[in-house]
Amino acid sequence: MDPSTQTPFSNRLTVLQEQPYNAEPDTAALIAHPYTPDELIYCRNHSPIKSLDAAAFTVSIGGIVQNALQFKLEELKRIFPRVEVVAALQCAGNRRKVMGERKKRNVDGVKWNEGVICNVKWAGVSMRQLLLAAGVRTQSGLHLCMGSHVVACSDDNWFGTSIPLDKAMDEEGDVILAYEMNGRALTPNHGYPFRVVVPGYTGVRWVKWVDSIIVSERQPDNFYHKRDYKVLPQEVTHSGGWWCKIDPLQFNPLNSVVASVSHRSVPTPSLYIKGYAMAGSSGQVKTVEVSVDTGRTWHKADITYQEGRWSWTLWEVSIDISGSLPERVWCRAVDESGAVQPADSDWNLRGLAYCGYGEKDLTRVEGNVGRDCRL
Ligand SMILES: Nc1nc2c(c(=O)[nH]1)N[C@H]1C(S)=C(S)[C@@H](COP(=O)(O)O)O[C@H]1N2
Ligand SMILES: [Mo]
User: Fold this and answer.
1) What is the CATH superfamily name and number for domain 3-245?
2) Residue 323: pLDDT band by 50, 70, 90 thresholds?
3) What positions does the domain Moybdenum cofactor oxidoreductase dimerisation occupy (predicted)?
4) Which of 169, 255, 270, 359 is most buried, judged by most C-beta within 10 A?
5) Are residues 329 and 258 in contact, defined by beta-carbon separation less than 8 angstroms?
6) pTM (2 decimals)?
């Protein structure tokens, strides 16, 4: 089927907003796959979803470059080598609901639970190669501005944001202009024909339906870049004059989430716990630890999937329990630099980048837990 005619809606996602379409999967279903299948990939949109005709659509590369270029999908595929990168894509609003509940304070925005993340094998063209072909002049302090003008958004008439040019020019930054996900063309939901993939960076920088790439001394004047996706200080309760004082959020925080807990009675009573972890700016996740006694002892989980610097990490652990069911299960990630996920992170007005310990509350579990069951 032509990818541009596929239906945008999956019955495996919980819809949090109909228009624009915003939906996320259940985390227990999500972590059953190392590469997230299309029907379990969250959808985060600030506009309606456009089905575009790749034969007519062009992406242009310009700004502070020697020769501006523009390409259609077929040309791009013909001229540049196809490169792959496995990278997790996560919305800055992942766990916003948890932040609101823990802090007992309202947070502005879609009340995302913990499923606004996916792990995908992306393929496309190296952004570095593309920029070199355009004769980019590397100098520090420049920005790579990325925009999509195909449809008006809720708070602006186009969608645009930027990343430091250095990230795109870094040979190990792995930024790509993607046209495939998990071996197939991007779907309209996720940016067909082109989206930017910025491994390690928060989802809003991964512009979908991207039609303009500009090297600039200035960051774009777009609502989603200037007046959203910034972690405001915790004392700020009205964003007003604060937006211009804070830099955009770029890297994801080091994070982990408990996705499923099952009780097993044989050979000894135990909890079988599974989840995911996500790396921050200081290296890939090295270990994940789980506690069933509110942090007195930590058990090292087995890492069941991890691939390269930018993938998510899937983990599981079985912990013996004697007597009654613990009240809660906690998890935390540790990265290669030794950085440890914090127990809690600050409240901020938009509920962004929450990264306190992962937790599953078992006090609400009812009935006889002597049986084998999912809790
Ligand atoms: N053009 C465009 N690109 C966009 C967005 C958007 O609304 N419009 N949403 C951004 C945000 S906030 C996130 S988290 C990711 C979501 O990507 P997905 O819907 O493919 O999961 O895309 C980003 N790119
Ligand atoms: Mo996002």
Assistant:
1) Oxidoreductase, molybdopterin-binding domain (3.90.420.10)
2) confident
3) 254-353
4) 255
5) yes
6) 0.96
